[in-house]
Hints:
The complex is a heterodimer of chains A (402) and B (535).
Chain A: H1 14-19, H2 24-30, H3 46-79, H4 96-130, E1 138-145, E2 148-153, E3 158-162, H5 168-171, E4 189-192, E5 197-203, E6 208-212, E7 217-221, E8 227-231, E9 237-242, E10 255-261, H6 263-283, H7 290-309, H8 345-351, H9 367-379, H10 391-397
Parallel strand pairs in A: 1-5, 4-10
Antiparallel strand pairs in A: 1-2, 2-3, 5-8, 6-7, 9-10
Chain B: H1 2-15, H2 24-29, H3 33-61, H4 72-107, H5 115-123, H6 125-140, H7 158-161, H8 164-193, H9 206-237, H10 251-285, H11 292-306, H12 321-333, H13 335-349, H14 358-380, H15 383-389, H16 393-423, H17 429-456, H18 470-499
Helix pairs in contact in B: 3-4, 3-5, 3-18, 4-6, 4-8, 4-10, 4-16, 5-8, 6-8, 8-9, 9-10, 9-11, 10-11, 10-13, 10-14, 10-16, 11-13, 13-14, 14-16, 14-17, 16-17, 16-18, 17-18
Amino acid sequence: MKTTPRFTRLRPCPALAAGLGALPFLFASGSALADYTWNFPPPVTPIARDTLKIHNEFMLIIGALFVAVFAIMIYSMIKHRKSTGHAPKQFSGPTGTVQWIWALVPFAILLFIDFVLMGIPAYHAVIDMEDTKTKADMVLKVTGMQWKWQYEYPESGVKFVSNLSTPREQVVNQAEKSEHYLLETDNEVVLPVGKKVRVLLTATDVIHTWWVPQFGVKRDAVPGFLRETWLKIDEPGVYRGQCAELCGKDHGFMPVVVRAVPEPEYAAWVDRKKTELAAASAGAERTWSKDELLAHGKAVYEAQCAVCHQADGKGLPPAFPALSGSKLVTGPLLAADGQLLKGSHVDRVLNGKEGTAMQAFRNTLNDVDLAAVITYERNALGNSKGDLIQPAQIKSLRGERT
Amino acid sequence: MSHATTAAHDAPHGGHGAAHPSGLLRWLTTTNHKDIGTMYLLFSLLMFFVGGAMILAVRAELFQPGLQLMQPEFFNQLIGVHALVMIFAALMPAATGFANWQIPLMIGAPDMALPRINNLGFWLLPPAAMLLTLPFVLAIFGIGDGAVATGWTLYAPLSVQGGLGVDFAIFAIHILGISSILGSINVIVTIFNLRAPGMTMMKLPIFAWGWLITAFLLIATIPVLAGAVTMLLTDRHFGTHFFNAAGGGDPILFQHLFWFFGHPEVYILLLPLWGLMPHVLATFSRKPIYGYKAQVYAFIAIGLLSVVVWAHHFFTAGMPVPALLYFMYSTMAISLPLAVLFFCWIATMWRGAMSFETPMLFAQGFIVLFGIAGLTGLVLADVAADAQYHHSYFVVAHFHYALFAGGIMGVMTGVYYWLPKWTGHMIDERLGKLHFWLTIISFNLTFLPQFFLGLAGMPRRIPDYALQFTEFNAISTVGAFILGFSQLLFAWNIWQCMRGGEKADGRAWEGADGLEWELPSPPPHHSWETPPAIK
């Protein structure tokens, strides 16, 4: 399988050099930067190719405008100076037909550029980009949440959460940074090549934006609403992007990684995922020992909770409260009748707290994960309640809403 | 009319038989347009350095990948407060300072029409600036979790979730808004009523025209922003659901309201400076302004268009195709009146006798770099390409070309141009030119690489980044530090000019034309006690 070309390849682009590089000093520093990218990364979807083409054309147009306009200005600055003894003229507007034509022609040209040269291709690109429904082969549902993405394949029922997998040590400069630093996840999205994928987006807490530059696709995930876009990946490979809308503390740490594979490989991946999910839900049926729960809970805690409540459970108050010694965590587990206790630790983990970054983990974690992490929080991080909750109990509590 | 205002203004020292209060009390109670203008400008300068210091901390963090100096929470606070400070406490007060000093001088009035409102307008600013920055200090003492961390756009629901910094920002915006509206009313009343006899609207100096359109835009849009942040406040504390889908609200409604203010705001910041440019260019080209009427009509057209294009700031939020097309084409249409301005600026220089004193250098630097902002703005209007540019460093670079090269450098043009008039001393030309070249080189060093970062896929507002963005970020940071420290030359030049230097005569610049240059430098306490005759 081919992986994404590194972004650091030389991609010379005359359009950009003309458009943005008209300032002379850029050319001076250009050679020193020859190894770095000057333009969009290589496009792999029809939209991205379209966008790149339009972008290159537009850069040429504005580059030409820039050069034309400022060449006139610079000519004037050289010719019409006091120090060369140029006598100032005293006109204050166009006089006579010829001058009026000179004054109006630039605007006719601009009108043509705006609404014909740029306006018409832009129109077609927009129509194409928004055509999410025609001949869509499959649907991918993307849910943004602080600070991870959940992916769902409605046709096959596959559903999982994708977290940043770069170790914290690399972020705080205690370990060498890996090749795909900050652009790597624990669960990659897998999509078949050559299929039109309709992407539905939403969010659970704040607005996030799903962006993979090589797809030319960027769309907001708005809590409480569905947004849509589409993509059709031409080449197998791994494509990387990240959240593009400021969404709080770890906005810079929620990458998107998509692996595009041929159709048969995709089908095999779906089967494998289904088996994994079945195994996980089977785990909810049996009784777990406390040690098993604690061991699994530690892993879940570190992946899901430590980002806010910190690895030691001390949190970052006041936004992210401490779990160590917390009244909530060390409070009663369930109501006397075994039902969900409103405002309890279990309730908070399952249903979240509105208006804060504490999300309803019932939507993203399975019964085993939830039981394990709740048990872990009550018996570690400086807490020692001694009680535990079984995955089967979580399963029955899911039906209840406080 | 002008007589009545003069009498009212004279009352305090006449009526009580006391001299001017001196010391702090003088500045607290002053109703003189020059005193207030000076305070606005000095306040703006101070806040320019405050906002600049914040962003230098941000650029230092971004020098290398990884988290070195600060945590993401603090990073998010710095970027948002940087923008709020620069827009509301540096650029807008600078423009109001210009209006205060110059409009009465240029239209032949003794003072602004509403001197007490003028005083109030200024003195609302320091408390607002304190509200914006106080949460940083409170956090040190363990109160709250710092300043607003949502970026200056305060998008809901992130801002509903935020800490007390958001509430401080909401109140700061209210106070700043009241201050702006008071200033705007004053400008409008002054221009409509205190012009010298014979100065018809189409003889009004073009700087005053630029400000007049700004004033109307402020009055039209600030209340919308005030409404939006009030809705945010009630969502946060009083159980309303304007921006919460679960309660029947819509987070995108906030974006519509915010940018209904936010887009005109760009022109609010720039129109006074577009008004200033023709004066400077004409002065140093020793020629009349080219296309006065065309420029006035372009100002009006830009003002009208500015309130109907707001949604191009959030194309990626998702909207119906007709809306996308409408906002794309209406945004592109703004290029036409803007092109009128560029045409007239260049035609004003054409076949003149140019000399290149500091204000002229800044004006020409402004035109070229603002040209880049305008042209990249044109491509940003394209919805499909915008999907790639949006939320990326391409946009960051674009609006700094507009608001630093267009805004801040425009203000510097005005300061250098009018300082001799205000202080009676010429500026230090060598220092001014050094400041210009350092600024223009380091500005491009800072922001040009950001276009390429954006194209390569670096989102804005991230405290840490993938490795392929390292080199451009390092260059940008080096540029930012040179840019930041170069501005000390600007402050030093102003200080020197206030203290002494070569005497400036009434017409400080050889080619200067206009009423303000017919008064001595510095002008008398009550600028025009008898209105001048207009030819």
